[in-house]
Design goal:
Layout: H1 24-35, H2 41-48, H3 52-64, E1 84-92, H4 97-105, E2 110-115, E3 122-128, H5 131-142, E4 148-156
Antiparallel strand pairs: 1-3, 1-4, 2-3
Helix pairs in contact: 2-3
Length: 166
């Protein structure tokens, strides 16, 4: 990508300027790309009734502003050999969030990590090959972290990804 089209780097302090407001065309583009991240610029432009150049510029702006964080495939985890999924709640040592987050990101099968309020501090979604691998992950990797005070594992029996409304 030519340098003039590259997204600006985030400032070192981690603060980004506020995102520009989204208009109805931006929101339509986002819905389309959520449904089909492989949609061509031409098809996006046609569906939202703007020129290809306008659609291209808007998508680039949404990426540069951090509204679009990337493009990814939706995976059927069971068919991909990850037949066991679980949400794991963690209680952690106060002020250890950043260290815990780094360690959790390195875990195989970690799909989503959230710092939350309530009865526990962290909510972690994992996908593993089977319950044996899940057990190993929880008992030997997560519970071995000195910052983790306790865990609770909630097995996922069935899941449905929600699609954005067209």
């Amino acid at each position: 990508m030519p340098e003039e089209q590259m997204a600006p780097e985030a400032p070192e302090d981690g603060h980004r300027p506020p995102a520009r407001p989204l208009d109805p065309v931006d929101r339509s583009i986002l819905r389309m790309l959520q449904l089909d991240g492989r949609a061509s610029i031409r098809s996006v432009a046609e569906r939202v009734h703007v020129s290809r150049a306008n659609a291209y510029a808007r998508i680039n702006r949404l990426v540069e502003d951090g509204v679009i964080r990337g493009f990814a495939a939706r995976v059927d985890h069971e068919r991909a050999g990850q037949g066991a999924s679980a949400y794991i709640t963690l209680k952690i040592v106060q002020n250890s969030w950043r260290a815990v987050r780094e360690k959790l990101q390195a875990l195989p099968g970690a799909a989503h990590i959230a710092l939350v309020s309530g009865d526990f501090d962290v909510l972690l979604l994992v996908h593993t090959a089977d319950n044996r691998a899940l057990r190993e992950l929880v008992l030997t990797r997560i519970q071995a972290m000195p910052e983790v005070l306790s865990t609770r594992t909630l097995l996922v029996f069935e899941e449905t990804d929600l699609e954005p409304e067209p």
